[in-house]
Amino acid sequence: MRIKMKSQRSGNNIGLAIVYPNGATETVVIAKMPPDNDWRANVEFYDDLKKIYAKRLSKIL
User: Fold this and answer.
1) How many domains does the chain have?
2) Are the beta carbons of 15 and 7 closer than 8 angstroms?
3) Which of 7, 22, 29, 58 has its CA 20 to 30 A from that of 52?
4) Can you list the alpha helix ranges (DSSP code H) found in the chain?
5) Could you tell me the pLDDT band of residue 46, with boundaries at 50, 70 and 90?
6) Each residue of 8-38: pLDDT tens digit?
7) Distance separating alpha carbons of residues 53 and 44, to the nearest angstrom
8) Cα–Cα distance between 11 and 21 in angstroms, integer?
9) DSSP-assigned letter for residue 38
10) How far apart are CA 35 and CA 22, in angstroms?
11) Quick check: 10 and 31 in contact, CB under 8 A?
12) Burial code of 14-52, b = ≥16 C-beta within 10 A, e = fewer?
């Protein structure tokens, strides 16, 4: 097993968590989404954050 990234969504919040091999999770980023449901720009930003964090994590490990 290895460390994985997991998306989390709750209401207008979207988050990124790390899932460790033992099953424990740790939230790394939480972004507040707009109440008008126009998620496009925010989802692109979130995807970029996810790529950057995954790249950084792979360098560390």
Assistant:
1) 1
2) yes
3) 22
4) 40-60
5) confident
6) 888 888 888 888 889 899 888 888 877 776 6
7) 14
8) 28
9) -
10) 36
11) no
12) bebbbeeeeeeeeeeeeeebeeeeeeeeeeeebeeeeee
Nearest residue to 54 (alpha-carbon basis) of 21, 23, 29, 24:
29
Single-letter amino acid, residue 25: T
- Residue 59's pLDDT band (boundaries 50, 70, 90)? confident
Pair of tokens at residue 13: 């919040």
Domain of residue 46, residue span: 4-60
* Amino acid of residue 38: D
What is the DSSP-derived secondary structure letter of residue 31?
E
Residue of 11, 53, 17 lying closest to 33 (CA atoms) = 11
